[in-house]
Amino acid sequence: MSNDRQLTTDGGSSDELFMEEALRAAERALEFGEVPVGAVVVCEGHVIAQGWNRNLTGTDPTAQACWRAAAGMSCRLSSGSGGSRAPSSYNSIAIGH
Fold first, then answer.
1. Which of 17-26, 44-53, 76-85 has the least mean pLDDT?
2. Distance in angstroms (rounded) separating the CA atoms of residues 54 and 25
3. pLDDT tens across 79-93, in order?
4. Can you give the pTM of this predicted structure?
5. What is the span of the domain harbouring residue 88?
6. How many domains does the chain contain in total?
7. Phi-psi region for residue 43, left (φ > 0), alpha (ψ -120 to 50) or beta?
8. From CA 97, how far away is CA 46, in angstroms rounded?
9. 4 belongs to a structural domain
10. Would you call 75 exposed, middle or buried from its count of C-beta atoms within 10 A (0-12, 13-18, 19+)?
11. Which of 1, 38, 45, 85 has the most CB atoms around it within 10 Å of its CB?
12. Has residue 51 been placed in a domain?
């Protein structure tokens, strides 16, 4: 669920970059035998969290990509300075493979 690398963009083709990262997360789900859905959370041009489906292998119906990404965002925000307050704006992208 955690983001292995920090993706940033200075404008340009940010949508494509973030969609590709969501697609990579969906591919991870497929590798685990899951329904291939991936999600990323983007804040101010940075991917701050990602997730992929784990509801079949984990036998947890709530372990869907978007919820796992949201949990990753929550962990990241609460471990940083400034407490657990959500950013004033963020985008999430979910994609199926």
1. 76-85
2. 11
3. 654 544 555 555 655
4. 0.68
5. 14-96
6. 1
7. beta
8. 22
9. no
10. middle
11. 38
12. yes
